[in-house]
């Protein structure tokens, strides 16, 4: 049991003893003491004034005296207005460190029995993954890991948008301009190759549009619409070309996913799911959930939910995105018997998901109360926005290479690993570069937009991934310097803690609560901000406190155990962000 549970239980006991009032442990307001005050944890005593019929300061004094006398873990207190600041004994922290060091499950929570689907990435097959996809992918992967660490079974999925007019644009352009060129013959990665022809289409359309009256369609766009109709009619030649070009893109996507260290448990494809919702709509019409207009289109009235009337099926019977999403949600539940689902999609789709979730509730879907839209803000670069149709998008692969290149450049300037073998150096550059990229993307609250600066992300000082990785590397360096048999003293005999040691233990104790909060809020920035602060405390500790040359063998043994525990939490937390820890930097 951690000390916060002990404090809450003992405060409940004290209030009962002193004021004959019965409280629950959940009702006790307890927070880490603010840095400008003395103490470790603060109890808010204002809620006890009615039962005690005394001023908050008097209640604080009485509770403080009772707790220091009755509770071994509490060694002192002070009262500031209605706040009781408690100091935890060094003896407790020594026992706590040894107990969590022996607990293999400290960095995760027990199984919940819940299965949750997380949908992320979900790209179009007419262009490569880009900067915006990176934030989406990293948020989805990290949330999946955080939900797993909170005891859930997680199914990671994407729906690949592999059909429609945009896909046909690349196909028409390839037919007209490629002269048989392939990714292999061009030396281009498959998704980059297909994206090249998406840009070519838009360039040609601009040329053809010159001189046309407003509203007139270009010849190339007319040809594209004709190709889409052939695709929907299962024309064999069009379907063969479609399969070939999508195959090129899938191969490219997989290389990018591998570079980012992510994978999916199951893929869904729009070409296979876009018709799934029609049966749901028909049944909903029978049940009065939907209504049909005179033109044959089908709608739902959501005004009582402060939404609007929403189209779910066109007048010609064709699907809209909502139709597909309804069918895909039910299909996923049939496949996985889920208790909830999280969609990682940008905030421009907020209204869509409010409508989707409301419709699923009205349809009586069993998982409908446990749906979540992880809505995130857009990401940009210091030099402005991107436009995929103009070929000005920052490709994910190029950004990954750029950040790794920044790490290599900085490393060469410092010369710290010049003597390492080339393969080892390349692996370090990769881990640190990806760590910089992922941390910078995930440390920002998902709801906020952000600017990503590659050069700033790789700095060894400040709120960056490499700064946290370096804390772990320093811990590994200490362990490498240990001589065989050099750690035989009993750490439990060290009972006079340095303030930095206590700060580290106080903060380590907050990790399980931080993990739970990150899972409840679907917010990886909770983990990123926590791990940065832990790394900061550890760097201060190593600067001011001797470890291998400690004043006693017991102190050395304790500090080694503490350092290993810090490293364990750093590694576990960074794993939730999809970041690896290097042994050297």
Account of the 3D structure:
By secondary structure, this protein is α/β, with parallel strands linked by helices. Among the domains are: 86 residues, Gyrase A, domain 2 (2-Layer Sandwich); 181 residues, Isoleucyl-tRNA Synthetase, Domain 1. Helices cover 54% and strands 11% of the residues. The protein is built from 22 helices and 14 strands. The strands form 4 sheets. A 5-stranded parallel beta sheet has the order 7-6-5-11-12, with helices on both faces. A 4-stranded antiparallel beta sheet has the order 1-2-4-3. The radius of gyration is 29 Å and the shape is globular.
What keyword list fits this structure?
14 strands, globular, 4-stranded antiparallel beta sheet, 585 residues, 22 helices, Gyrase A, domain 2, 5-stranded parallel beta sheet, Isoleucyl-tRNA Synthetase, Domain 1, alpha/beta
How do you describe this structure in short?
This protein is an alpha/beta fold and 585 residues long.
């Amino acid at each position: 049991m951690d000390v916060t549970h002990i404090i809450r239980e003992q405060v409940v006991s004290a209030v009962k003893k002193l004021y004959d009032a019965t409280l629950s442990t959940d009702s006790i307001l307890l927070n880490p003491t603010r840095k400008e005050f003395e103490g470790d944890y603060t109890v808010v005593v204002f809620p006890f004034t009615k039962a005690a019929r005394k001023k908050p300061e008097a209640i604080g004094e009485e509770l403080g005296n009772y707790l220091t006398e009755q509770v071994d873990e509490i060694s002192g207190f002070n009262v500031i207005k209605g706040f009781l600041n408690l100091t935890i004994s060094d003896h407790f922290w020594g026992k706590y460190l040894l107990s969590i060091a022996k607990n293999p499950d400290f960095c995760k929570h027990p199984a919940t029995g819940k299965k949750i689907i997380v949908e992320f990435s979900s790209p179009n097959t007419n262009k490569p993954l880009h900067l915006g996809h990176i934030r989406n992918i990293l948020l989805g992967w990290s949330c999946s890991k955080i939900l797993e660490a909170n005891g859930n079974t997680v199914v990671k999925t994407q729906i690949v948008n592999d059909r429609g007019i945009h896909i046909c644009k690349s196909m028409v352009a390839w037919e007209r301009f490629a002269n048989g060129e392939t990714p292999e013959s061009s030396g281009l990665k498959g998704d980059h190759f297909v994206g090249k022809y998406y840009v070519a289409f838009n360039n040609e359309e601009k040329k053809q549009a010159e001189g046309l009256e407003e509203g007139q369609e270009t010849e190339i766009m007319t040809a594209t619409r004709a190709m889409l109709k052939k695709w929907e009619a299962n024309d064999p030649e069009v379907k063969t070309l479609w399969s070939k070009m999508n195959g090129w893109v899938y191969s490219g996507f997989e290389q990018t996913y591998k570079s980012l260290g992510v994978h999916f448990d199951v893929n869904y494809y729009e070409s296979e799911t876009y018709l799934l919702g029609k049966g749901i709509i028909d049944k909903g019409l029978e049940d009065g959930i939907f209504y049909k207009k005179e033109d044959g289109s089908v709608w739902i009235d959501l005004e009582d939910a402060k939404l609007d009337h929403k189209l779910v099926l066109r007048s010609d019977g064709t699907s809209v995105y909502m139709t597909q999403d309804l069918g895909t949600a039910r299909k996923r539940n049939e496949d996985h018997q889920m208790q909830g689902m999280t969609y990682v999609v940008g905030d421009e789709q907020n209204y869509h998901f409010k409508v989707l979730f409301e419709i699923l509730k009205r349809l009586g879907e069993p998982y409908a109360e446990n749906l979540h839209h992880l809505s995130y803000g857009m990401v940009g670069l210091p030099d402005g926005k991107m436009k995929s149709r103009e070929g000005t998008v920052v490709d994910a692969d190029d950004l990954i290479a750029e950040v790794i290149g920044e790490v290599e450049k900085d490393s060469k300037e410092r010369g710290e690993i010049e003597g390492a073998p080339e393969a080892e150096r390349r692996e370090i550059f990769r881990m640190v570069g990806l760590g910089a990229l992922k941390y910078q993307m995930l440390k920002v609250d998902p709801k906020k937009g952000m600017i990503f600066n590659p050069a700033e992300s790789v700095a060894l000082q400040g709120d960056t991934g490499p700064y946290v990785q370096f804390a772990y590397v320093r811990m590994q360096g200490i362990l490498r310097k240990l001589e065989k048999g050099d750690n035989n003293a009993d750490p439990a005999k060290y009972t006079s803690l340095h303030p930095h040691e206590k700060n580290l233990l106080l903060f380590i104790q907050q990790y399980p609560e931080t993990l739970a909060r990150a899972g409840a809020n679907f917010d990886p920035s909770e983990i990123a901000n926590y791990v940065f602060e832990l790394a900061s405390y550890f760097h201060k500790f190593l600067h001011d406190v001797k470890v291998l040359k400690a004043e006693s063998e017991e102190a050395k043994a304790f500090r080694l155990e503490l350092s290993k525990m810090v490293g364990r939490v750093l590694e576990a937390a960074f794993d939730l962000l999809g970041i690896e820890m290097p042994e050297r930097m």
